[in-house]
């Protein structure tokens, strides 16, 4: 049996205000907490036991998922008292693993939406005899990522963090955030202090002669670290572009959860999701957006590529494009909020007072 560690301790700072009240993996994507999609895909790949490494708002996870039995999983939770980094978090939960020294342990990050063939990564790890195997994906512009060049057999030859010059960009392969560790390798990570697997563990293993194997899988992959990426990921799940067995309904142009109310003449397109108890008024148009639980979009409003937080209200005829509206915020009628705008939780904007336009 392959078991897994899921790293869900990050603060999600770049996603604020979405993460003011909710840890990043619990923000809804396609109608359910994003973490649900990851757990369901792991179970579909044969994983049965998962340890969640929690930190920020750690108390939220267990009341929602419990022991994991509803998903066919056995879940355990370990909370970091102080942030330990990716490597430190992995080491901190090692005592909860059941694997033998040479068994594979899957490790993945709680903010990556991917179509990775998990079983293929485990098989690659086993067949190559690697100490650690990494999921790699190819991107057009790798400057924001860690590059991972490999030789002709897929063996990793270096780790290059966020190169900037053309000379430094020796490959388009990046670390995609999913790994398989030989169980005994986890015990070599130092305890009691922050450790980064990307900057410390992997380079040190490589320099010591350990076998690190890369597997390139360039199916769907998206880092959900920014609001724009999160909204896109949710829409892609609804549209069926990103695979998940946990989408609560048929994939298509829209997903409306049963307790939501949508006016007959409202238009929902582009992978829009309307969560529980949300309301969309007459003549409203919502494209590629997510309306979280209890959100209200009043008549004639136009919402595009945006996320409307739980219990937030968008006034009549207001235009919201490429923006994030925090939980409980109130945006009055006839406002216009354009690309990059973030309205904090519980903020109130009076009617016809704000115009943030892309042409100004």
Automatic annotation (TrEMBL):
CDD domains, per the entry: NTP_transferase
Highest classification ranks of the organism: Bacteria, Bacillati, Actinomycetota, Actinomycetes, Kitasatosporales
Organism: Streptomyces litmocidini
Ranges for domain Mannose-1-phosphate guanyltransferase C-terminal: 252-333
Domain Nucleotidyl transferase: 4-236
Protein name: Sugar phosphate nucleotidyltransferase
InterPro entries: GMPPB_C, Mannose-1P_guanyltransferase, NTP_transferase_dom, Nucleotide-diphossugar_trans
Family in the record: Belongs to the transferase hexapeptide repeat family.
């Amino acid at each position: 049996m392959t078991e897994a560690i899921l790293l869900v301790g990050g603060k999600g700072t770049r996603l604020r205000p979405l993460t003011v009240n909710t840890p990043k993996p619990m923000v809804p994507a396609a109608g359910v907490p994003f973490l649900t999609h990851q757990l369901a895909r792991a179970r579909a790949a044969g994983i049965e036991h998962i340890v969640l490494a929690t930190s920020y708002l750690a108390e939220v996870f267990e009341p929602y998922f419990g022991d994991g039995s509803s998903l066919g999983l056995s879940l355990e939770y370990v909370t970091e008292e102080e942030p330990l980094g990716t490597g430190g978090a992995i080491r901190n939960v090692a005592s909860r693993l059941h694997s033998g020294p040479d068994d594979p342990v899957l490790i993945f990050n709680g903010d990556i939406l991917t179509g990775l063939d998990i079983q293929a990564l485990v098989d690659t790890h086993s067949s190559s005899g690697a100490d650690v195997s990494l999921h790699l994906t190819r991107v057009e512009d790798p400057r924001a990522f860690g590059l991972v060049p490999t030789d002709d057999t897929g063996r990793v030859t270096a780790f290059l963090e966020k190169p900037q010059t053309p000379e430094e960009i020796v490959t388009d392969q990046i670390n995609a955030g999913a790994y398989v560790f030989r169980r005994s390798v986890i015990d070599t990570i130092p305890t009691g202090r922050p450790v980064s697997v990307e900057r410390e563990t992997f380079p040190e293993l490589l320099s010591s002669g350990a076998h690190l194997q890369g597997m390139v899988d360039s199916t769907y992959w998206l880092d959900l670290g920014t609001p724009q990426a999160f909204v896109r990921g949710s829409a892609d799940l609804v549209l069926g572009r990103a695979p998940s067995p946990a989408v609560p309904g048929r994939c298509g142009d829209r997903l409306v959860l049963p307790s939501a109310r949508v006016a007959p003449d409202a238009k929902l397109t582009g992978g829009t999701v309307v969560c529980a108890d949300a309301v969309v008024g007459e003549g409203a148009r919502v494209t590629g957006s997510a309306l979280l639980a209890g959100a209200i979009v009043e008549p004639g409003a136009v919402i595009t590529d945006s996320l409307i937080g739980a219990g937030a209200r968008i006034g009549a005829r207001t235009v919201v494009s490429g923006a994030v509206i925090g939980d409980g915020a109130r945006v009055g009628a006839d406002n216009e909020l354009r690309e990059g705008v973030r309205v904090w939780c519980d903020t109130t904007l009076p009617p016809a007072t704000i115009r943030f336009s892309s042409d100004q």
